[in-house]
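Exercise 7.
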Amino acid sequence: MTEIVYALIQAVHNLGAVAVVGSPAVALGLRGRGVALERRLAWALLAAWGLQAASGAGFAAASYGLKGQLPEITGVALYSLAVKLFATATGFSTAALLLWLRRLSSPRSRAVAWSVCLGLAVAALLAAAPLRWYL
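Solution. The predicted structure, written as tokens, is:
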């Protein structure tokens, strides 16, 4: 039963990872030609970062519920978790900013915001590998 719970949480987490990378990659590929589509992509990105946060918390909740304690996280895994938490909080905030501003002043400023989002997504994915390895 424990393995099924973790596998389901991991599947949801992986789907969120696809969306946090895919949304900014598509937006950057548009090169400012699809402002309406960029807005929809920003909503998808906001939801994806929320899904990442929820499924990440799901790992902790599953550990606590199924094993009676949170996993012991030290060393490289702790740094990886910190990177993932920072990327998630900043990515969520940047996606919200993209929606709140409605239109950034120029295609260049939108491209910078989307590039930051893509960088945060890649950082989170790269941090996931050592986190999984050490847990």
